From TrEMBL:
The chain crosses the membrane at residues 12-36, 142-163, 184-209, 321-340, 360-378, 390-409, 414-434, 446-470. Pfam families: PepSY_TM. InterPro entries: PepSY-ass_TM. The keyword Lipid metabolism does not apply. Signal peptide: none annotated. It comes from the Bacteria. Keywords: Membrane, Transmembrane, Transmembrane helix. This is PepSY domain-containing protein. The keyword Transmembrane helix applies.
Length: 474
């Protein structure tokens, strides 16, 4: 590679990161959390802990859910769909899309009894933020799609810059070197060690966002979010026989059921699959007779594979944890690259806007991690019956994130990183104690709650280590 080409690639890599880096960090961080969105929602609704994943769905519970839907229809409520129990979420849900997340009551799959869970978006907040940044549609999707395009440029230019040292970079991390050198090692290591994952997740995300913003594939019944259709279209016959027929013909458990004016679409997904292949069994809304849907073409099969690879919703726990580690590596890659840029400018005495960028780095990146942990704290501390508690949780997250960013501009440079990281450490390490004090006594017998508590505590330990490591270097 000629020096001129290297200089141009370095310029492209540096300035693309400055333009899109903070948004890329937020996208990667929230996307990583959204891999376990259902588990986070269950943690944030501890009242549902009494329902075990192995509990089967009864015909009585399904019919009770249908009766609730019919009552809602008579009252003029927007259309809804049913989400059936699964290994990740053992509850029977009646979901409506509110513009940001799927909300609605939860039912006991054994008898259809309503479970009084606290109002929260739970992990769905991170899923929605990941591809909309919580901005109005379609502007959020447009911005994330543009940012993902910048990310593809970052990965391409980064690979070309380090192509000659791709293998040695797998084994290079000098923690005791000067700050810029150590940060560069960390940036390159997390980039090269999970490079296939970074490329896959970027290009599948770009495809999915492009398909949301500029749809290329039309579907007769798109599952998420369900469209609001006219009322008085719910079937009056029993739904359970159709569910059993679908499971018998497909060999897979039913995951959700959608209703339209003419048809009932019953979806089943193959577990532990890379592809979200969700062609439904369709039944007539009046007679209950099966209606043969058109077979999926190659484009739709490719879309199902790309969607499954990106979202990992149908993957088994091992692959989903591997995707989680890949997301963490991507998040660290972006963070270390942004901090490296300001550290190098400071070391070379090229100040200009470097102090402001350094404070923005500390406030935005550590602030998002701290605010996300505080989101869990807020969920447990707000009174159960507080009005609009779900919106209060989200508002608190954004207020704390913004406050941490502002705090970074008022802190002495010597504690610029150590203070927000110390707050993050306290929030993370305190989650297990919070869970013990505010949850029912039997929570600690559930592996899901223990897993969330453990990950939060590990995040706190990582933040504490970062605070101790950064303080003498700032």
């Amino acid at each position: 590679m000629t020096p001129v080409l290297r200089a141009r690639l370095s310029w492209l890599h540096r300035w693309t990161a400055l333009v899109a880096g903070w948004i890329v960090f937020a996208i990667f961080f929230t996307g990583t959390l959204s891999l376990f969105d259902a588990e986070l929602t269950r943690w944030m609704q501890p009242e549902s802990a009494e329902i075990l994943p192995e509990q089967p769905l009864s015909d009585q519970a399904l019919e009770h859910a249908m009766q609730i839907l019919r009552d809602d229809e008579r009252q003029g409520k927007p259309s809804a769909f049913l989400s059936l129990p699964s290994a990740r979420d053992p509850l029977l849900h009646i979901f409506r899309y509110d513009g940001h997340a799927l909300i609605g009551p939860a039912l006991n799959p054994r008898d259809g009894r309503l479970i009084a869970t606290r109002q929260t978006e739970g992990g769905a907040f991170f899923f929605n933020f990941h591809y909309t940044l919580r901005l109005p549609s379609p502007w959020g999707e447009y911005l994330v799609a543009l940012t993902t395009f910048f990310l593809s440029l970052l990965i391409l230019s980064g690979v070309l810059l380090h192509l000659s040292r791709l293998i040695p970079d797998y084994f290079t991390l000098r923690l005791h070197a000067a700050t810029p050198r150590c940060l560069l090692d960390l940036h390159v290591l997390t980039g090269t060690a999970m490079l296939p994952f970074h490329i896959m997740i970027t290009w599948t995300g770009l495809f999915l966002l492009g398909n949301i913003a500029f749809p290329l594939i039309s579907h007769d019944a798109a599952p998420l979010p369900p469209a609001v259709v006219e009322h008085h279209h719910l079937p009056t016959f029993l739904l359970a026989p159709l569910v059993h027929k679908t499971e018998r013909l497909t060999g897979n458990a039913v995951t959700y059921i959608l209703f339209s004016a003419e048809h009932i679409a019953i979806y089943s997904l193959r577990p532990d699959s890379l592809s979200i292949h969700d062609t439904p069994m369709t039944f007539d809304n009046v007679t209950g007779q099966a209606v043969a849907p058109p077979p999926p073409d190659r484009v739709e099969r490719a879309e199902a594979l790309l969607t499954g690879l990106h979202m990992a919703h149908t993957m088994g726990p091992v692959l989903r944890w591997l995707w989680f580690l890949g997301g963490l590596a991507a998040t660290v890659m972006v963070a270390s690259g942004l901090v490296f840029h300001t550290a190098r400018r400071r070391a070379s005495a090229r100040q200009l806007t470097s102090p402001r960028l350094e404070r923005l780095n500390a406030g935005i990146m550590s602030g998002l991690v701290f605010a996300s942990l505080a989101y869990l704290w807020t969920n447990r501390l707000i009174p159960y019956d507080w009005k609009d508690r779900s919106m209060l949780e989200i508002t608190t997250l954004f207020v704390l994130w913004g406050s941490t960013a502002l705090l970074a501009f008022g802190l002495p440079r010597a504690v610029l990183w150590s203070v927000p990281l110390a707050l993050t450490a306290l929030a993370g390490l305190g989650i297990p104690l919070l869970d013990l004090l505010t949850g029912p006594s039997h929570l600690w017998r559930h592996s899901l709650f223990l897993s969330v508590d453990a990950v939060c505590a590990l995040t706190g330990l990582a933040a504490l280590s970062g605070a101790l490591w950064m303080r003498p270097r700032t």
